[in-house]
Every structure is written in structure tokens, then in C-alpha cells.
Amino acid sequence: MIGEGEPKGWRQPELWAKALPSVALQTLFFLAPLLMTVLLTFQETRSFMLQWAWSLKTWSDIFSRPHYWTILWHTLWMSALCVALCVLISLPVAYALATRLQSMSGHVKVLITFAFLTDATLKTFGWVLFLDQKGAANFLLERIGFPPAMIGFLYTDWATLLGMVYNLLAFTIFTIYLSIANIDRSLILAAYDAGASKWRAFWEVTLPLSRPGIWTGSVLVFLLSVGVFLEPKVLGGGKSPMSAELIRQTFETRVNWPLGAALTIVLMVTAVFVILLFNRVYSLRRHGAAA
Amino acid sequence: MSRHARERLINIILYGSVAAVLVFLYIPIFTLIAFSFQEGRFLVLPFQGLSLQWYGALFRNSAAATALWNSTLIAFVAMLFSTALGTAAAIVAVRYRFRFKLPFLGLSTAPLAFPQLLMGIVLLLWFSVLGRWLDFNNGLVTAIIGHVVYITPFAMIIVAVQVFNFDIALEDAARDCGAGPWEVYRYVTIPLLWPGIFSAAIFSFLLSWGNFYLTYSLAGSTRTLPTFVFSGIATGSSPLYPAMATVVFIPGILLVMVADALRRRAARRLA
Q: A25 vs B13: CB contact, 8 Å cut-off?
């Protein structure tokens, strides 16, 4: 039914009419700005003004300052932890959504969607109120007999991580859910017939087949989490800056566009490189196991 | 451990994880709602008393009202554009096969996986250069463009699911009965895709309404609710924000519920 027949040429007027608007939009306001950002990194800045003079000054600056790389390393670590936590939390939830909770599943999805779509600034601020020394969590814990101010990790990296997982969790829940929901039930039943336990069937049938969802979700969360700036600022107290905060400061406080542009490119390229590296290591391991 | 006990354990873990995640997701939301009813100036527990005074203060605050209006305006316009562009792109993505399909899919979904702050900065640079050349300042329009770039891929994916479940024979039947291309669209394609389009529109509206990063970079001096809140919490927490959050939550949950009801009705009709 879908996409039957040979690939047709791209010169169909009907196709043009539908594809052109979004192609134009993304070319003009995504691709072109991105290319210009790359070009900007080869310019110079003098007394807070951009000079269109081709030079490699910015790049030599970046590669000679370990400070930038320390922050980048920290960012990548936080993002990797965020991805791992998101996947670990999402797996049982997505599995339950797809296989249990028949009639409830719709309501749970609505609740998750709503929590995801609500203003991230407000939700992050809600966490501050909850985790604060005199906040809701400590108040409730003290009420049931714990010592006062037991929860004191607000304004540390752990609070930042919590905020990142909180704001990105929906991506992994939904991608993993979709891939588990699309698994042919008969494959799992076949595993049972062959004498597999529930656990074994999950481990050897469901989990491998839900890999595309896990992978898509992880890539999305990783790429989005390297760019967070709200969480480190509001929940982390701005004490250990991550790349996005550094980039923002470079643009806003130091008004150094070429440097900011270069840091943006470095962050994105490194993130994509990490993903490609993982993909490569993973496929090598799989081929190795198959051989 | 017996088989029965193990099965119980698996169920406890699965149901428990769903419950735990829901609690986790709603902790900050309920905290904000609870704090909105407190009386004192400081956002600490225990409350000094319960009152609705901060709601009153919120409605008298003109900066908050302007921010609310800007958010709604931006979200509405961004919703119209993203839904229209996303629907067209979704039809292309599912229905057509052509040589440049892969680049097309890559380009039209790329913003989905691009950190918003960085996209905001990249676009800010672009608009600054264009602005100097064409003489305009950042404001509502640039914010809307940024939102449309970011949200269109979401709308496209949501509508694509609907297009995927669509029986092409219905269009053929309409054509066989003598309908022209426009009539086929007007009376067959669009009505059948409507639930997907509608969910995409609600999703787009809410994504834009709650967007912080892009607005922060692109709206110039124009404030929306998220940037208004951010500028407030950067300088110190005010008792206004929990009340504001509660006001913002209500239309959100209603819209999500409407979208879900429509999706269900459409699923029943297909079955």
C-alpha cells in the first residue's frame, strides 16, 4: 500500500508543492544558519565587534586552552549518565505500557505527555521548591521522623542530572514503547512454546527487538542533553558550568561570536562523533559475536 | 522461588516502575500547585497559611499579562505554520518515493535532534546578520520562525503515523467517482487525517507555549511566560511563580486530554 512501485522522479509537481515549504524552511533557517556558524568560526573579533577577516585564531585559541575541554568532558559525562538513567528507567515503564495496563495505558500516556509538554522552566523551578533545604521533600521527611534537612543535593551536579533526566525521560519512554509495541506477539509466544521462561523470552526476544527504540531514544536524549543550560543554572546553582552555559556566556558576556560559534561546532561535532563511535563499537561487537 | 511468585515479582516491578515514574514526573508539578496556595512571601514550608492572594497579584501584574499574551500569540501562529508544513511533509515522507527522499527526511527531521539552545544561538547569529542587512530587530517574528523550525518535525512525525494508517484506496475511489485533486483533498484526505493533524496542532501549540530556549535567544526584548519566569528565578524566587505555574497547567492538561480523546475516536473508527 505504501510507496508501491519504482521510485519516481522528483519532478512531480504534486510532490514539489508539499515538500518545498518544509525544505525551504529548514534550508533557510536551519542549514544556512549552521553553515554561517561554521564560517563565523574563521573570523576575528576586535573590541566586541565581529571582523570579517579570515583567520584561524579562534581555532588555535580553542585547541590551546584545556579549560574548554574540561567543560566539554564534564558535559559529555553528564549526558552519558543521563542517557543511561533514561534508558534504565524507561525500559520497565515502556514494557509495562506495551504489555500490561491495557485500558490504563492510554491514561498513563496522557499523563506522561502532559508532564513532558509543560513549561520546562516552571517544572525545573518546581524541583527547586521540592529539593530546597526548607523545601517540600525535607519537610515531609522530617514529619515522618527523619533528621532535618536530610536532602541536601540541590545546587550540585546530582540535582542537575535529576533535572536533565526529568526533562528528557519522555523521549526514551516513547521511542522504546513504540518499538516494543510493534514487536510481533507471536515471536514471544513462540519463545514460550520453545520452553523459554518469561525472563529468558524478554532477554532473548523482546530486548533485542526493542533495540531500535533504545538506540533512537538514546541518540535523541544524548544530543539534546549536551545542550542543556536551564538545569545546570537553576538546579546546579551554576557552580559547575556545562558547555551550553559556556557558549551562552561567550556570546552574551564576552560578545565573542567566532569563539562562541566554534564552541557550538565543537560541541555538536563531538556529540555526533561519540554517537558514531558507539554505533561502530556496538556493531563490531555484534558481528564478532555472530562469527 | 516458584513460578507463581516470580511472575508476581515481575508484575510488581513493572507496575511499580510506572507508578514511580508518574510520581517522579508529577513531583515538581504538584509542589508548584501546593505552593501557589500559601500565604507568606517566602517559598518555604511549613506554610504560614492558605490563601489565594498570589493569584490576585498575578492577575494584577501587567508584565505577567503581557508575557501570557505573547506566549499565546507566538504559540498560535507557530502552531498554524508547523502543523501545515508538518502535514505536507508527512504526506511526502510516507506516500512518495523519489530519489532525494533520504536527504529530504534527514533535513526535515534534523532540528528534532539539535539542542535547542544551540539552535537558538545559531539562528540568533543568522538573524543578526540578516537583520543588519535587511534592517530588522529580533522580536515576535524571529521567535515564531525559530519555533516553527523546531516544532515542524514533531508535527510531521505525529501526522505521519496517521498517514501510515490511511487506506489509499479511499482516494482512488473518490477519483473514480470523478473527484478532482482538490476535491479529493478537501473531502477525503484531510477529513481522514484530521485526528492526526489535530493532535499535531495541540502538540505544536504546547511545545511552543512552553518553549524556553528558542524564545530566550530569539525574542529580543519580548517576554513570554517561560522567559518571564526564568528572569524572575534568576534574580530570586517570587511567590508569584507557583500561582502562575498552576494557571499555565490547566489549559495544558485540557488540551492533551482533548487530543487523546480525538485520537481514540479515530482509532475506533479505523477498527
A: no
